Amino acid sequence: MVAGWFTQDSGEEDFRLLGTRCTACSSVFFPREDSFCRNPACSGGELAEVPLSKRGRVWSYTDGRYRPPAPYVSDPDAAWQPYTLLAVELEAERMVVLGQAVPGVSVADLAVGMEVEVVPGVLNEAAGTVWTTWHWRPVAVTS
Questions:
Q1: Residue 21, number of CB atoms within 10 A of its CB
Q2: Could you tell me the end-to-end alpha-carbon distance of the chain, in angstroms, rounded to an integer?
Q3: What is the value of pTM for the model shown?
Q4: N or C, which terminus of the chain has less Cβ within 10 Å?
């Protein structure tokens, strides 16, 4: 994945997506913005890195049941694994961030408004290299 989009070398408890906040207008951006404030009503300001909310609520979701066409890069000989994609509204920032669900979570396990948390995930592994990404995991409800 892209360097600087989430914490590196941290355990699951400390794993967070990283955005940037404009010091002039307080707008928060993800993916991060390091050049200028994207708020059209703001004349600019410094952009500071900020960890984003660890939890949010499912805004929408769907499943990916086909291999995307080129330019998507994948091994055509590998079996295609369907995945679940979530749009999650972050708790404090009130922004929607896309990401995959943790392996094993399907659309049948989700509902709009359900609380989820961001956790580290594996995008790909090859030749001893692991590419990390983020996944969304439903938060266990305790009674």
A1: 21
A2: 37
A3: 0.85
A4: C
